[in-house]
Write a structure and sequence with these properties.
CATH superfamily of the largest domain: Na+/H+ antiporter like domain
CATH topology of the largest domain: Na+/H+ antiporter like fold
Strand order of the largest sheet: 1-2
CATH class of the largest domain: Mainly Alpha
Length: 444
């Protein structure tokens, strides 16, 4: 007779956080791909003027003399993307506390590979653009789009070992952390001291909520809004507020599993002792007991886990598609595409995302394994690591985001960067998928 884990029959299947994470990223990647195609079609169709006008329309919020007035494009990039960065912050925190980055012996290979995958693309881009105003875009090819990369790997199914997927996830998380630091440190044009101090105070309040054991989401949301507003006015990009707020969200439950079990048993025992009404309706005491049990169930979960789970769908279905629609639509004159590719920015982005990622990720991984610093992921091969290095060249979301920051007000350079990002991401994604599907040797 099969033995079931607790609650398994009731729920049929309980996905692990990692499985939910992969599912969410795969969904995001597919939707992102669709919206990118839609944006490109609109930008190169008779609707191009209408498409451009929509995202340059201003939306204003005002209370008395105070107001916020930005274009829809800015609201998406500065406000909605803060939610995306909040999710990134939660993912980074989870990976460090209980995920692939919590065990340094396991984490050392993706950490060092990710660092290599950031440094070499930046160096290659900077070398190609050295001495030009476009050199400030060195951060563009550093990032890996986790949603696209994981989607490509998951589509391969059993052809790649699970350990290789976790390697890519850990690598992409470290990569995201690096991109966040680069945005905060190098793409902040001017600092305004008073709002920055107020943002710091807001963060300390969030930390105090955590330390006092507050698990309700509303207080964190309200103070988080103030943190975002102060960060917006400080000169540091407002989306960084999302990552900072995520660090303060509680990651520990109020009850341990054993404590929950004892409390739940006590409540259910009391429930059994209650007399059932003739019409089988719950009496007031039973309703109170069940309400108490629900509170205990909520308390054994963590706010960080609940938010990461609850926000993935809105981010995948609303935030990321809107970002792609607002930023991926570039009008391309295919007759002059060969000229655009030879521009230093475009060439730097392509070389950085393709060559730089391969040298950085695969080269560093190979060196670490040969030197005995790290071991290959379980049942994987160096040939498969090479394929993953190719997938690391899918920059897209974060790369486009950095391009807008690096070349603010320089539309021609932004255009060249986006062409490079799209071409490099397409080439890297297809090459990595085909390599892992038909060429890469399986590990033992």
């Amino acid at each position: 007779m099969r033995l079931y884990a607790p609650w398994e029959k009731a729920f049929k299947k309980v996905s692990t956080p990692f499985e939910e994470f992969l599912h969410a990223q795969t969904t995001t990647g597919l939707i992102l791909m669709i919206m990118t195609v839609v944006a490109l079609v609109l930008a190169n169709s008779p609707l191009s003027e209408w498409y451009s006008h929509i995202f340059h329309t201003k939306i204003e919020f005002s209370i008395g003399s105070w107001k916020l007035s930005y274009t829809i494009h800015h609201w998406i990039n500065d406000a909605l993307m803060a939610i995306f960065f909040f999710i990134i912050g939660l993912e980074i925190k989870r990976e460090i506390l209980v995920g692939e980055l919590s065990n340094i012996k396991v984490a050392i290979l993706p950490i060092l590979s990710a660092i290599g995958g950031m440094i070499f693309p930046a160096l290659i881009f900077y070398a190609i653009n050295f001495g030009k105003e476009s050199a400030s875009g060195w951060g563009i090819p550093m990032a890996t789009d986790i949603a696209f990369a994981i989607s490509a790997l998951v589509l391969l199914g059993k052809r790649v070992p699970t350990a290789l997927v976790t390697f890519l996830v850990a690598l992409a998380i470290v990569d995201d952390l690096g991109a966040v630091l680069v945005i905060a440190v190098f793409y902040t044009k001017q600092i305004f001291f008073t709002p920055l101090v107020l943002a710091g105070v807001s963060f300390l309040i969030l930390v105090a909520f955590n330390r006092f054991g507050i698990h309700k989401i509303l207080p964190y949301f309200i103070v988080g809004l103030f943190l975002w507003f102060f960060m917006l006015k400080s000169g540091v990009h407002a989306t960084i507020a999302g990552v900072i707020a995520a660090l303060a969200i509680p990651s520990k439950p109020k009850y341990s599993p054993m404590g929950f079990r004892a409390e739940a048993k006590k409540i259910l025992d009391e429930f059994d002792e209650c007399e059932m009404d003739e019409d089988y309706m719950l009496n007031e005491k039973q309703k109170a007991l069940l309400g108490n049990l629900k509170k205990r169930i909520d308390a054994i979960g963590t706010p960080a886990a609940r938010l990461e789970h609850d926000l993935h769908l809105p981010v995948a279905l609303i935030v990321i598609p809107l970002f792609a629609l607002a930023n991926a639509g570039i009008s391309i004159d295919f007759g002059s595409i060969s000229t655009i590719i030879t521009k230093p920015v475009t060439l730097g982005v392509i070389a950085g995302l393709v060559l730089g990622k391969i040298v950085g990720i695969f080269g560093v991984a190979w060196a670490c394994i040969k030197l005995g610093i790290a071991k290959l992921p379980y049942k994987s091969s160096m040939s498969q690591i090479f394929g993953v290095a190719f997938l690391g060249g899918i920059g897209f979301t974060m790369s486009i985001f950095v391009a807008d920051l690096a070349y603010a007000g320089k539309e021609d350079l932004i255009f060249q960067a986006k062409v490079g990002i799209l071409l490099a991401s397409l080439f890297a994604g297809l090459s990595g998928f085909l390599w892992l599907r038909f060429v890469a040797k399986k590990g033992e």
